[in-house]
Amino acid sequence: MQNEERVTFRYNCMIEYYLAKKAAQSSEFLIHMMANRNYLNYSNELMYYTGLNRQNIDVVKALQKDLYADFDKMRDIIPKIDDYNIGINISLPEENFAKRIGESKLTQAQSDKMQDTEDTSDLHTPEEIDKSVTHEDMDSFVRTLLIYGGCLKNLELLPKKEKEIMYNDYILGLCIMLGIFKKNVEEYFNGEVSDMEQSPEKYTEKEIREQKALMQDVLKISLPIALQNIALENVGTIKLKSIIEGVITDKNSSEFSKFFSVFMFSDLHLPGLKHVLKDYVDKANNKSLLTIIFFKLLYYYRFRYFSPSLDSFFEDILADINIKLHGGNKFRKDRLITDIKSQKMINNR
């Protein structure tokens, strides 16, 4: 639309696209976008730019300079699975396991309805866009990492070695985000518990202790799964299959790096997911890690993420985790699977 001597756009995406085109034609404007983290205010433009220029290493190097500086300051916050100490007991006796699993499984219609969410994000007109917004340090790190992930997804013509470096950087950034979010939410929960302690007439010491432990366990289970889902949206593409597999099979990969990569692999429905998941569960021995894996696999099963043909696989692997947590043998596992299947048949009548 033309307004006197000014040209304006009805849709934000149009001005963002043309700014990306300007960056492609003007090295001076591209330098401006990338300097002093200005890209935080040009994130959509940068996605368009890297989509149009799929092998631009200069953008990667500029982002890496800022990201590596953040890594140096925040690396110590990365949590270790051995210190996670999830105390919640999700293992069930065999007579309850099948009943709980069967009761939790949704119908296909219920699953579709819950996953068909409406976009409630705020809309801004082109006139409202502000390219001079400043960002706090933590916000800058998170936004930089997400932009870096978007570039990794777009820059598919980069050499494989560069993409391997970018993916490993991204996974390291996710582990740091996990540590940051865990610390912040724990502080919030500790504040809530402190408020409870100020009301001894309402809560006993045992109730406060149990509530604190429960809140921390819910946090420890949900945060890795939530971050992995963010990663799927941000960098998930089948074109990174071999790179993701490299992290999964690397003996030096941290537990959370492997967790993020294993479930990135399976969320993308990549060929060989049954083998990858089975091998991952078989090798996992830490009970806190097994608990997180259990809830992720339960999500697959309950929300029918995969074809019904994989139901028996997930029933089997959930039973394996239950036995690792609760104890048992092959005979008990067979009974668990039989019970799960019979309960499922009852629920589907």
Task: Write structural notes for this entry.
68% of the residues lie in helices and 1% in strands. It is mainly α and 349 residues long. It has a two-stranded antiparallel ribbon.
Number of helices: 15
Query: What's the mean pLDDT score?
Result: 84
β-sheet strand percentage: under 5%
Low-confidence stretches: none
Q: Kindly report the spatial arrangement of strands forming the biggest sheet.
A: 1-2
Q: Structural class given helices, strands, pairing?
A: mainly alpha
List its traits.
mainly alpha; 15 helices; 349 residues; single chain
How do the helices and strands line up, and which of them pair or pack?
Elements: E1 2-3, E2 6-7, H1 12-25, H2 27-34, H3 43-52, H4 57-74, H5 94-104, H6 108-115, H7 137-154, H8 160-197, H9 205-235, H10 241-249, H11 255-267, H12 273-283, H13 287-302, H14 311-326, H15 330-347
Antiparallel strand pairs: 1-2
